[in-house]
Amino acid sequence: MGGRPYTRGVAEVVHDESGTASVAEIGLNPFAPGYFEDPYAQYRSLRAVAPVHQSPIGPWTVTRYDDCSRLLRDPTLSVEEHNATAMPRNAMLEAAGIERGERGSRAILNIDPPDHTRIRRLAQQAFTPRRVETLVPRVQALVDDMLDTVAPRGEMDVIADLAFPLPFAVISELLGMPEHDRTELRAWSHTLVQSLEPIVVPDEFPAILDAGDHITEHVEAAIAWKRRNPADDLLSALIAAEEEGDRLTPAELRDQVVLLYLAGHETTVNLIGNGTLALLRHPDQLAVLREDPDVTGNAVEELLRYDSPVQFSRRIALEDLELTGQHVTAGTFLFTCLGAANRDPEHFGPTAEELDLRRREAPHHLSFGGGVHHCLGAVLARTEARVAIPTLVLRDDTPRWNGRMVLRGVDELPVSF
C-alpha cells in the first residue's frame, strides 16, 4: 500500500466487550463482509462519524444529503477525468500494458459545458415527459407479453424475464436500433459497465475492453445502417444533427449512442429489480400499492430513494474547497454517495431507513443525480418502473447481487406467483 497518494479514512475509538479501547479505521470499505448485500449499515456509520473522508479506495467520499446535493449542483466542479491530478486506474492500466485510449470520452456523462449543453440539447427531445408518456401503451404491452410468457410456469426470474428485456426493448425501439442477439448484447453491457466501478481487478481489464470493442462495433454498424435507412427515431435524429455541420462529431455521435444504449437499460434493470425486491420484503408496503393505485407515482420515487440503482456519482474539484470541515485540493476526485444521502435522517427524518410509499419527501432523492448532469432518461426510467414492477411473491429471499458499488442491483431474483 506504500506510495498511495491518499489516506485511509479517519480513526474512531471503539471498545470490545471487556471495555478495552482500540482504534479502528472508518472509511468506505466495499471489502467488508456483507457490503454488497447491504451497504446501508456502513453508510449509516459514515454519515455519523466520517461524513466527508478520503477513503481507502482513493476518492474523497461524501455521504450526507446536503453535501451531496451541493456538489452535484455545483457548476464549478468537473466530470472530465483529465482535470484529476491522480487517476489510480490509469496507472493500473499502464502497468498492465493496456492502452485505454479515448473510449467514451465524448459521452455527456464525461464532459462539461458548453459541449455537454450542446449535445444534451440534441438528445433530450426524445425524453420529454410528453414524449415518454406516449410510450406507456407500448411499455404496458411489452410487460403483459413478458408476464404472459412466464405465467404457465408459475415462476420467473424477475431480472432475466422482465427487468432486463423490458428496458432493453424500449431503448432499442426508441433509438431505432437494428435487431441483434440480446443475450450477447446483455453480456457485453454487463461486462462493460464494470468500467464505472472505482475498483477493477487488473485481470478483468481485457474482458472489459473487449466488450467495449464489441459494443462500439455494433453501434458503428447500426449508425451506418441507419444512414441508409433513416426513420422517425432518436438515432436518425442524432445522425441528421451530425450531418448539419459541427454540432455532433462522429466520435460524439458514437459515444452518445453507446451511453444511451447502456444507461438506457442497465440502470432501469436495477430499478425494477431492487424495487420489486424491496416491496416483496415489505409486505405492508406492497399491500399499500395493491390497495391504492394512486400511490404508484410516489411509490416509484420512494423505491428509488430506498435502494438507489446508482449509488455513486463522481465530481472533480477544479479549485481548492472546504467541505464539512475538510480541505479538498484542486484535482481531487469526489464520490457523492447517493445511497447514503438518500437515507440521511437530517433530510428524510427519523424513519429514513424505512420504506414508506407515502413518504412526502421521497421525490427529493438524489438517485438521478443533480445539476446539469441530472439523468437524461429519468422520466423514461420512472415510466418503465411504474408500469413494470409486478405483484409477485418471493420463492427465494436470497437474490444474487451483482457485486457492484456504483450500479447496485441483483443479477437474479427468483419469484413465484
Q: How does this structure look, described?
A:
The structure is a single chain. The protein is an alpha+beta fold and 417 residues long. The protein has 17 helices and 13 strands. The protein has helices at residues 40-49, 65-73, 88-95, 115-123, 129-133, 136-150, 158-163, 165-175, 182-192, 205-228, 234-243, 250-281, 283-291, 296-306, 338-341, 345-348, 378-388, and strands at residues 10-15, 21-26, 52-54, 60-62, 155-157, 312-316, 321-323, 326-328, 333-337, 393-394, 400-401, 410-412, 414-416. The strands form five sheets. The chain has a four-stranded mixed β-sheet, with helices on both faces. Helix 6 (136-150) crosses helix 17. The longest helix has 32 residues, at 250-281. It is globular, with a radius of gyration of 22 Å. Residues 1-9, 11-16 and 18-24 have low confidence and may be disordered.
* Main sheet overview: 4 strands, mixed
Could you tell me the mean pLDDT?
A: 85
Beta percentage is 5-15%
Which structural class do the helices and strands define? Answer: alpha+beta
Tell me the Rg in angstroms: 22 Å
Helical content, roughly?
40-55%
Low-confidence stretches: 1-9, 11-16, 18-24
Kindly state the number of beta strands.
13
Anisotropy-based shape: globular
The SSE order reads EEHEEHHHHHEHHHHHHHHEEEEHHHEEEE
Straight-line N-to-C gap: 50 Å
Oligomer: single chain
Strand order of the largest sheet: 3-4-9-6
DSSP summary: helix tally: 17
Distinctive features:
single chain; 417 residues; alpha+beta; four-stranded mixed sheet; disordered N terminus
Protein topology:
Elements: E1 10-15, E2 21-26, H1 40-49, E3 52-54, E4 60-62, H2 65-73, H3 88-95, H4 115-123, H5 129-133, H6 136-150, E5 155-157, H7 158-163, H8 165-175, H9 182-192, H10 205-228, H11 234-243, H12 250-281, H13 283-291, H14 296-306, E6 312-316, E7 321-323, E8 326-328, E9 333-337, H15 338-341, H16 345-348, H17 378-388, E10 393-394, E11 400-401, E12 410-412, E13 414-416
Parallel strand pairs: 4-9
Antiparallel strand pairs: 1-2, 3-4, 5-13, 6-9, 7-8, 10-13, 11-12
Helix pairs in contact: 6-17, 8-12, 9-10, 10-12, 12-14, 12-17
